[in-house]
From TrEMBL:
It is found in: Membrane; Secreted, Cell wall. Residues 324-642 form the Protein kinase domain. This is Protein kinase domain-containing protein. GO terms for cellular component: membrane.
Length: 642
């Protein structure tokens, strides 16, 4: 039978099917039928029969004859009775039965063999009994919504680690929430009176615990703590302590605020660069603080402790302006603190303190800084000046109003970073990098510290690279420990950066831009804390590229992308191309990793929109989920050779 014949048979098996009256004709106009989902090439892949008042019987045998059916939705109709037996629909990727009147227990094996299922929505029905165990080991399950039913008993242990959407609220579930789900939002479990354990209230033992003292599997021995009077008392005590702590903190803040206001009244800046100097003096220890007057050292023209301008225009400020500028701390990176300095009636600048910049002598340092200051490119944040002392250096850059790429990608409004904006950013980064390579041809690592917090954005989201070209002046041990390029596999394995180590950083930056994932979280060994992409340990055997590769190999290509760009229409093909570029830049083996010219050239070729004939199958919802790279398109060697 043709798909048209099968579908008409299916329609006829449903009651109240008026909404499907236009299901007439044959294969040629199939994709115009109400509720049918088709790819751009007109192949049918799903039924979206939502809000149509449909009821009666769902004829699964007929659905089985639709070999290309991967998505089935009857959300918000009035189907009733037990859940249809769907497990033979082994190609199904998405199942939406929410907001109907289905009822009764779902057999434990109801989803057995449905290895491709990614999205299961059974919410707002009348399902009872235990959550079916076969849901717990569907390898690709990503969205699970069971809220608003009457599921009871314990929540089974789920094998899946990552859910995008997960909701079991408003059922009658009880017992301890399995450890694997303890990182979910508490709202996912709300409205289940019998549930306890992280992220809900702690459980307490009713006294009927297992012989080994655990309460993991003995549902009856575990009850939510809010039932216990002792716990209630404890809770009250905790609340009182919290109130006292908050009161103390508030009073301390008020005192601090009053002192600041008082300082202001005395016409003193709360934090000025002079203050910063004094702070640094006292933290340097007694001996040093007695012998060095840092405030007076911070003046132009002296031998030690001088502010040196490296640009012709000088930016319209002098040392005294900088000393008087009110300043605030922007953050504290691996080299020291970074300050924003607002010069009265002058420019706003960023002053970054470096404590380990003593790899070269004074003259060499001055020469190098002058060289950096002479670089001009729209995608490089210009170095304005530097302040030299033997023990520490300050580099003064222009301030970028729009902050760093990292703060946008991992902050609250990452949605401003649309695909076209991300493409603009990576093209700018590539151009800035190419300029550096052309100007430092003999150097191993012209950038050396490329990462998203060192890419700042102007008001038009044009990127500018910062902290470039610092490797030669940085103390070697510190560079090894903290600079981004030293996190490449060749450094982890052999301790030697390579001319392609910057390319590795570019690859990681590309993958961060596309996935929205924070690279430091994918380093398996090492310090994941702080706002830096660095860790303190070079023995990392994991990275963002390994994660991307594993997701893509599992045929989850669409799911690799950041949620803010995932729905991009007509750009998916180009996004995939950039993903591949990122992966070629992240080849572990230096030989097979692209060189910077190749990477930059490929990035330049990218467009915002897919060309007409290319990737035409990305037309409708869910397509990106089903589109995967072939082995050929995505064959990478992840072994390290040198
Ligand atoms: N010129 C600038 N304009 C705007 N924001 C900036 C500028 N320079 C730095 N920042 C921001 O200030 C914060 C602190 O920067 P800092 O360089 O100290 O930390 P980092 O880049 O995370 O670490 P690292 O010391 O390894 O470079 C970061 O969020 C950074 O993006």
């Amino acid at each position: 039978d043709s798909n048209a014949q099968i579908l008409i048979r299916f329609r006829n098996s449903i009651s109240n099917n008026k909404a499907l009256d236009n299901w007439v004709g044959n294969e040629t106009n199939l994709c115009n039928w109400t509720g049918l989902l088709c790819h751009k090439d007109q192949t049918f892949y799903g039924l979206r029969l939502e809000n149509m008042g449909l009821s009666g019987n769902i004829d699964v045998d007929t659905l089985l004859a639709l070999s290309t059916l991967t998505s089935f939705s009857v959300i918000n109709n009035t189907f009733e009775g037990p859940m249809p037996e769907l497990k033979n629909l082994v190609n199904l990727r998405a199942l939406f039965l929410s907001n109907n009147k289905f009822s009764g227990d779902i057999p434990d094996d109801a989803f057995e063999g449905m290895g491709r299922l990614k999205r299961v929505f059974l919410a707002e029905n009348g399902f009872t009994g235990q959550i079916p165990k076969s849901l717990t080991n569907l390898p690709r399950l990503w969205d699970l919504d069971l809220h608003g039913n009457s599921f009871g008993g314990n929540i089974p242990e789920f094998q899946q680690k990552d859910f995008r959407e997960f909701n079991m609220s408003h059922n009658q579930l009880e017992g301890q929430i399995p450890q694997s789900l303890s990182n979910k939002d508490p709202s996912s479990f709300a409205g289940n009176k019998g549930l306890c354990g992280k992220p809900m209230n702690p459980c307490h033992n009713s006294g009927d615990s297992n012989s080994d003292g655990s309460n993991k599997s003995n549902n009856k021995s575990v009850i939510p703590s809010h039932d216990s009077p002792q716990r209630k008392g404890k809770k009250h005590r905790i609340i009182i302590i919290i109130i006292i702590v908050v009161a103390v903190v508030v009073s301390a803040s008020i005192v601090a605020l009053l002192s600041i206001l008082n300082l202001r009244r005395k016409k003193l800046h709360p934090l000025t660069l002079s203050n910063m100097q004094e702070n640094s003096k006292s933290s340097a220890g007694n001996k040093e603080s007695q012998s060095i007057d840092l405030t007076s050292d911070f003046k132009k023209g002296g031998d030690d402790g001088e502010l040196n301008f490296v640009r012709e225009d000088k930016g319209g400020f002098g040392l005294q302006d900088l000393l008087r500028a009110s300043a605030m701390v922007l953050g504290s990176g691996s080299f020291g603190s970074t300050y924003k300095a607002m010069i009265l009636n002058g420019p706003t600048l960023v002053v970054k303190r470096f404590r380990h910049m003593n790899n070269v002598g004074k003259q060499e340092f001055f020469d190098h800084m002058k060289r950096l200051g002479s670089l001009t490119h729209p995608n490089l944040l210009p170095l304005a000046a530097f302040y030299y002392r033997k023990e520490e250096k300050f580099l003064v850059y222009d301030f970028a109003e729009n902050g760093s790429l990292a703060s946008h990608l991992h902050g609250k409004n990452s949605s401003v970073l649309t695909w076209p904006t991300r493409l603009k950013i990576i093209k700018g980064v590539a151009r800035g990098l190419a300029y550096l390579y052309e100007n430092f041809p003999g150097q191993n690592l012209p950038h050396g510290h490329l990462k998203s917090s060192n890419v700042v954005l102007d008001n038009a989201f044009q990127p500018q690279l910062m902290e470039y070209g610092l490797v030669p002046v940085m103390r070697k041990s510190h560079a090894h420990q903290f600079m981004a390029a030293f996190k490449s596999p060749e450094v982890s394995q052999f301790g030697r950066p390579n001319v392609k180590s910057d390319v590795w950083c570019l690859g990681i930056l590309i993958l961060e831009l596309l996935t929205g994932k924070f690279p430091a979280n994918y380093l398996r060994h090492g310090n994941k804390g702080g706002n830096s992409n660095n860790n303190n340990n070079n023995n990392n055997d994991g990275d963002l590229a390994t994660w991307v590769e594993s997701v893509v190999r599992e045929e989850w290509t669409g799911e690799v992308f950041d949620k803010d760009i995932m729905g991009t229409r007509n750009g998916e093909g180009e996004m995939l191309k950039l993903l591949r570029i990122g992966m070629y830049c992240c080849q572990w083996s230096v030989e097979s990793r692209w060189n910077w010219r190749e990477a930059v050239a490929k990035i330049e070729e990218l467009k915002e929109k897919d060309s007409e004939d290319e990737y035409s199958s990305y037309a409708s919802e869910g397509d990106l989920y089903s589109r995967t790279m072939t082995e050929d398109e995505f064959s990478f060697s992840r072994s390290v050779t040198n």
